[in-house]
Amino acid sequence: MNEPLTIALPTGRLGQQTITFLQKAKIISSLDTNSRKLKIVDQEQNITYLFIKPTDIATYVEKGVADLGIVGKDTLLEQNKQVYELLPLGIGQCIIAIAGFKNTILKPSKETLIVASKYPNITKTYFKSINQPIQTIYLNGSVELAPLMGLSDVIVDIVETGSTLKANNLAVLETVMTVEATLIASKTNYQFKYERIIQLLSKMKEALL
User: Fold this and answer.
1) Distance (Å, rounded) from C-alpha 31 to C-alpha 116?
2) pLDDT tens for each residue of 149-176
3) Do 184 and 159 fall into the same domain?
4) How many separate domains does the chain show?
5) Do residues 101 and 167 both lie within one domain?
6) Residue 89: how many other CB atoms lie within 10 Å
7) For the segment 28-77, what is each residue's pLDDT rounded down to a tens digit?
8) How far is CA 168 from CA 115, 146, 147, 162, in A?
9) Residues 160, 192: one domain?
10) Do residues 168 and 139 share a domain?
């Protein structure tokens, strides 16, 4: 069965890792990976690839525009979209961490901690679990600047190598969770394209061995 599929892939660094993985899984065959097009059709495999900003992928899948998508687990936890999570892919592995100046004390107290992050939901859930009152400040970029300028006490951000933190005299104070890229599926389209999706899922599982 070669039913057409549409797969949403992330742009940026995770996108490169994703393409390498799909090539290893023998899912991508004839695709110009150097193209700057946002929509590319692999005629041989009958798959349309959409190259999308990582934070938007789950929306395309939830709405059924894409049958499948590959997105970071951090994005799924933050957005809480109505999609099926099919398989962690072992790529894009990193941590979500609380970071700040090395002498910052994170013991729960009655004093409100000011936290800057682009992950307000994950942040609130974590600090609620340890009974620490917080005030969240949403920032979408240059989060590391917040404690340097006195905007926040700490930040909650995704950390891969920690080099940006180190360059700004910050350090990981506590790990919130480990995340990685995850294959997701449209709840609506999954039932109609089940056999083709399972076929691809099987190839991905083999590539993980």
Assistant:
1) 40
2) 999 999 999 998 889 999 999 999 999 9
3) no
4) 2
5) yes
6) 22
7) 876 666 677 899 988 888 999 999 999 999 999 999 999 999 999 999 99
8) 17, 11, 10, 10
9) no
10) yes
> What token pair was written down for 198?
């399972």
DSSP structure class, residue 206: H
- Domain of residue 30, residue span: 5-92+180-208
Angle between helices 13-24 and 194-208 (to 10 degrees): 90
Tell me the whole-structure pTM to 2 decimals. 0.89
The enclosing domain of 201 has a CATH number of: 3.40.190.10
Shared domain check, 187 and 168:
no
In contact, 157 and 99? CB cutoff 8 Å: yes
Residues 131-148: pLDDT tens digits? 999 999 999 989 999 999
- Where do runs of H (alpha helix) occur along 30-162? 54-62, 73-79, 120-129, 145-148
Q: How far is CA 67 from CA 16, 43, 70, 73, 157, in A?
A: 20, 17, 11, 18, 29
**Residue 116 and residue 172 in one domain:** yes
Strand order from edge to edge, sheet including 113-117: 134-138, 113-117, 154-159, 94-100, 171-179
